[in-house]
Design a protein that fits this description.
The structure holds 2 protein chains of 2 kinds. By secondary structure, chain A is mainly alpha-helical. Chain A contains 15 helices and 2 strands. The radius of gyration of chain B is 23 Å and the shape is globular. Chain B starts with a helix and ends in an 8-residue tail after the last helix. Classes of the chains: A mainly alpha, B mainly alpha. The interface between A and B is large, with 97 and 90 residues.
C-alpha cells in the first residue's frame, strides 16, 4: 500500500518536473540537446584530437595518442609564437584604428544636428556590406595595376609607381587591417554614440562654467563617465577582430608568405589545408581558451554596467 | 543666423568622413556599370555615363552563373533563421518566465558560444559531419550555421521577452488558459518584432559566413555567395565589372532586411546581443 503511494508521489513529482505548466524542462530541452550535440561534443572532440597525432592525408601513420606532444611541439615552435604576435599586432592595429575613428564619428554625431538619421543610415552601409563582398571590393581597390587606390596616390604624387598592395608582406598586413576597420567602424561608432548620449549634459555644462575647455571636458568628464561603455565596446570589438576570417581569406589566403596568417587562419590552414587534425585542434583549443577569457571579462563588464 | 551656421563644421566633418567611408561602395557600384574594357581606364570612370545594366544579367546567367550561389544562400539563410527561432524562442521564453538554478550558467554558455569563432567547433564537428554524409550538402551548412545563430537568437529574444510585461499572460492563466495557449495567443504575437529581429539576424549572419561553407562545400553547384565570390576573386582572370555586379546583388538582400530592423537593432545592441 505504502509503496503504491510512494510510486504515485514519485510519478507526481516527475510529472511536475516536466510539466510545461510548471517547469521550464520542455522549453529548454531543444536548446539543451542542441548545445550538447553541437557545442559540448565538438569541444570534447577537439580536446581529444589535440592529444593525438591525426593527419588525414597520411593514413599510413594512423591515429595515435600523442599526449602533450602537439602542445610541446607547438609552444616550442618559433612560427607559432610569430603567429601569436602577428595576431596580437593585427587585432591591436585594427581595434585601435576602429576606436579612434569611431570615437571621432560618435563625437560629431552626438551634437544636436539636422539630418542625424540620414548620417546614421549612411554610416551603417559598410557594416551591412557582407564581409566577403567588402573583401572582394577592396581587393579591386588595392589592385596592383589598375586599382583606384594606386591611381589616387599616383595623382597626388604620394607614390611614383603602382604598388602591389596585397603582394607585399607589410602592406598586405596593413591593408587587410584597414578593410577590417572599415567594416567594424560603423557599429562601434553607434555604440560609442549611445555611450556619449548617456553622459549628463549638466556635468559638462557646469565644467564649462568652471572654465574647462572642450578638450578638457572630453578628457576629464566625457571619457571617465563613459568608461564602462568604452570597455564593453572595445572588448566586444576585440573578440570580433580576433575572430576575423572573412576579410583575410578572400583577400590574401593568409599570405603573402605568412604575413596575414592570424591564429584563426592558421587553425584553418592546418586542419583543412594540411589536414593535420591534431595540430589544428591544438590551435583551436588555444583560440578557445583566449576567447573564453575575453568573454568572461566581457560578461563581468556587462554585469557591472547593469549594476550602475 | 549664427545658430544656423554654428554646426557647419560638424556637417563638413561628417560629410568628409562619410565620403571616405562610402568611397569603396561607390567604386563597387560604378565598376558594376562599366564595360570590361573601360574598367581598366585611367582616370577611372567615376560616373559611367552609359550604365551597362547588362553586366547584371551576364553575371546572373553567364559564366559566373551567380543565380546558383544566390539561391543556395537564400535556402541556407532562411533555413538557418527558422531553425534558430524554433530552438531559441522556447528557451528564451523559459529564461524569462521561469525561475531555475542553472539560469545564469545557461546565459553564460549562450554568450560564450556566440563569441566562438566557427573554426573551433568545426574542427571538432568535421568528422561527425563526414560520418553522417553531410559534407557537400546544404543541410550540413545549415546545421553548422545554426550553432552560431541560435545562441544569438536566444540572447536577442531573451532581451525582448524581458521587456514584455507578464501581467497579460497571468490574466490569461487566471481565465484558465493553458501555458501553450497563452504562448500562442499572447506571448508570441507580442514578441513578434523580437522574433523577427532574431530571425533576420540569423539570416544575415549565415548570409555573411565564409568559413563554414569553405570547409564543408567543395561542389561548385552547392556554393553559397560568400564561397563563390571568394573563388571568383581568386581566379587568374577576374572580370571585375561582373564581380562588382555580383557584389551589389549580394549586398541587396542584407541591406533590405536590415532596414526593417534598424530601429530595433539600435535599441537592442547595447545588450551585446549583436554579432559582427
Amino acid at each position: 500500500m505504502s509503496s503504491q503511494i510512494k510510486k504515485e508521489r514519485i510519478s507526481y513529482k516527475l510529472r511536475k518536473m516536466v510539466s510545461p505548466e510548471r517547469s521550464p524542462f520542455f522549453f529548454l530541452l531543444p536548446l539543451f540537446l542542441f548545445l550538447v550535440l553541437m557545442v559540448a561534443y565538438p569541444i570534447g572532440r577537439i580536446i581529444y584530437l589535440s592529444f593525438t597525432q591525426n593527419i588525414l592525408t597520411r593514413p599510413d601513420l594512423g591515429v595515435s595518442f600523442n599526449g602533450l606532444g602537439n602542445y610541446t611541439a607547438l609552444l616550442g615552435s618559433i612560427e607559432f609564437w610569430a603567429t601569436v604576435l602577428r595576431t596580437v599586432l593585427w587585432t591591436g592595429l585594427s581595434v585601435i584604428g576602429k576606436c579612434l575613428i569611431a570615437m571621432y564619428i560618435a563625437l560629431l554625431l552626438a551634437k544636436n544636428i539636422a539630418f542625424k538619421r540620414l548620417y546614421m543610415g549612411l554610416l551603417l552601409i559598410p557594416w551591412v556590406t557582407p564581409m566577403v563582398v567588402a573583401a572582394v571590393v577592396w581587393k579591386w581597390l588595392y589592385d596592383g595595376q589598375f586599382g583606384t587606390i594606386n591611381y589616387i596616390l599616383l595623382q597626388l604624387n604620394i607614390i611614383q609607381e603602382p604598388i602591389i598592395w596585397l603582394g607585399n608582406e607589410l602592406s598586405a598586413f596593413i591593408a587587410t587591417a584597414i578593410v577590417d576597420m572599415w567594416i567594424g567602424i560603423p557599429f562601434l561608432a553607434l555604440m560609442l554614440l549611445s555611450g556619449l548620449q548617456s553622459v549628463p549634459v549638466e556635468l559638462s555644462e557646469s565644467a564649462s562654467i568652471d572654465g574647462a575647455n572642450a578638450i578638457q571636458r572630453f578628457f576629464f568628464i566625457t571619457l571617465p563617465t563613459m568608461k564602462p561603455i568604452i570597455l564593453v565596446a572595445t572588448v566586444l570589438t576585440g573578440i570580433w577582430t580576433f575572430n576575423s576570417f572573412g576579410v583575410i581569406w578572400p583577400m590574401t589566403n593568409g599570405g603573402p608568405v605568412q604575413a596575414t596568417t592570424t591564429l584563426v587562419v592558421d587553425a584553418y590552414k592546418r586542419s583543412f589545408g594540411a589536414f593535420d587534425m591534431g595540430m589544428g585542434a591544438t590551435i583551436a583549443i588555444i583560440i578557445f581558451l583566449i576567447l573564453l577569457g575575453f568573454t568572461i571579462i566581457y560578461k563581468r563588464l556587462l554585469d557591472r554596467q547593469g549594476e550602475l | 543666423m549664427k545658430n544656423k551656421w554654428r554646426n557647419a563644421p560638424v556637417h563638413i566633418g561628417l560629410w568628409i568622413t562619410l565620403i571616405i567611408l562610402l568611397f569603396p561602395v561607390w567604386i563597387m557600384i560604378s565598376t558594376s556599370l562599366q564595360k570590361y574594357e573601360d574598367v581598366f581606364n585611367w582616370p577611372p570612370d567615376w560616373l559611367p555615363n552609359k550604365p551597362e545594366w547588362i553586366n547584371f544579367v551576364n553575371v546572373w546567367l553567364g559564366d559566373y552563373s551567380f543565380h546558383e550561389p544566390f539561391f543556395n544562400s537564400i535556402i541556407i539563410s532562411v533555413s538557418t533563421a527558422l531553425i534558430s527561432i524554433v530552438i531559441a524562442f522556447p528557451a528564451a521564453y523559459a529564461l524569462t518566465r521561469f525561475k531555475f538554478k542553472a539560469k545564469n550558467l545557461l546565459l553564460l554558455i549562450v554568450l560564450v558560444t556566440q563569441m566562438f569563432s566557427p573554426i573551433i567547433l568545426i574542427v571538432g564537428l568535421f568528422q561527425l559531419i563526414q560520418t553522417y554524409n553531410l559534407l557537400n550538402t546544404l543541410i550540413g551548412v545549415i546545421i553548422t550555421n545554426s550553432v552560431f545563430t541560435t545562441p544569438m537568437a536566444v540572447w536577442l529574444m531573451y532581451g525582448y521577452l524581458q521587456s514584455i510585461p507578464v501581467t497579460l499572460e497571468q490574466a490569461a492563466f487566471v481565465d484558465g488558459a493553458s501555458r501553450f495557449k497563452s504562448i500562442i495567443r499572447i506571448t508570441f504575437p507580442l514578441a513578434a518584432p523580437g522574433v523577427a529581429m532574431a530571425g533576420i539576424y540569423a539570416f544575415i549572419m549565415s548570409w555573411n559566413d565564409l568559413i563554414i561553407p569553405l570547409i564543408l562545400i567543395s561542389e561548385d553547384s552547392l556554393r553559397p555567395i560568400s564561397l563563390a565570390l571568394t573563388d571568383f576573386a581568386g581566379q587568374n582572370v577576374v572580370y571585375w565589372h561582373e564581380m562588382m555586379a555580383a557584389s551589389v546583388i549580394s549586398t541587396l538582400p542584407v541591406a533590405i532586411l536590415f532596414s526593417f530592423v534598424q530601429n530595433l537593432f539600435v535599441k537592442g545592441f547595447m545588450s551585446g546581443a549583436v554579432k559582427e
